Task: structure prediction
Amino acid sequence: MKKQVRICMLGAGRVGRLHSGTITRYISDATVTALVDPAESILQETGKDFGIETQFTSFEEALDKALFDAVVITTPTFTHRDLAVLAAEQGKHIFLEKPMALNLAKCDDIIAAAEKSGVILQMGFMRRSDPDFMAAVERIQTGEIGEPTMIKTLTHGPGLPPAWANDIRTSNGMLAEVTSHDFDTIRWLMGSNIERIYVETANFKGAERGATAKHFYDNMFATMKLESGALGNISGVCPCDYGYDARAEVIGKKGIMIIGEMKGQAVTVTVNRDQGLVTPIYRRWPERFAWAYINEIQHFVECVLTGSTPRVTGEDGRWAVAGVLAGTKSFLEERPVYLKEVLEADNPAPWLAGN
Ligand SMILES: NC(=O)c1ccc[n+]([C@@H]2O[C@H](COP(=O)([O-])OP(=O)(O)OC[C@H]3O[C@@H](n4cnc5c(N)ncnc54)[C@H](O)[C@@H]3O)[C@@H](O)[C@H]2O)c1
Result:
């Protein structure tokens, strides 16, 4: 029998369900041998739906009683540091959902613990495993559109994320929970770090949706200058209600590349010549990035089996967190912020609870 990577799932919520389904249905070299979530009804429901019988309400109990080689961490961001460090100390390989952690010191703790134990640390930036985005970066690197001079990216999510993710004090808000993918995409596609960022935010639906946290915003727009001299922007809307929308446009000295589209299925229908064609769009992120979620877990399992370095590392996770912190500082202080201001600060995110 082929060697199996035994995985303990930490978190059985939205993404825990997604990755549990991916591993049990599509990854032949891996088995989920334990599922952990302190919320018992969520634990039981996900366990039942994916046939995972070994369930625990704490990671410590799973470490004590179950056998596994790796963890897939899909818990709220404020728990990432402690769970990932404990996993590394116990010699478990780590797949960690974005955002890596709430601040840079916590990112550093995770990176140091993984390095010390020699375990694999892969970040859950699934766009790096998406066939469209992967093809795009390859074509940019071969020079097809010339030197990249500008990038525009957007992520618009249909519904409000869980309550903990709406409050900048517990999550760094939408910049982290929704558009940290864009921060990573920009560095990856443009081959450059961000130098300076200016962010505007607005709140149109918070009150009607019960999102009452101070500084809650549901629309954001970031403008930035990269170290390469190129320009970039990110638009984020959540909840946008109309569907899931994640696209990017890269302008180069020779041309333009457009990545992604809203249209979600190859089938279009008309039954009414006045209404015209009905073209389905992506409804949610699991649909848009279905292959990316499978590919990223397959890649993680291969890295564990072969000891190779993952395509998205802890350093990549840390850079995205730095962008999020600079962006948050920018809209709170109503000014452009240099990344070095957060990279060099003792306390770069004073708005975080417990800081
Ligand atoms: N890559 C993506 O496309 C994507 C999409 C959405 C969310 N995320 C990220 O995934 C993470 C989880 O988001 P979500 O939407 O699934 O949240 P969620 O609230 O739906 O689920 C999180 C689960 O973790 C459980 N949990 C809390 N503390 C725990 C602990 N110590 N041990 C085990 N379980 C614990 C909670 O009870 C909950 O069931 C976040 O970091 C989020 O940013 C990634």
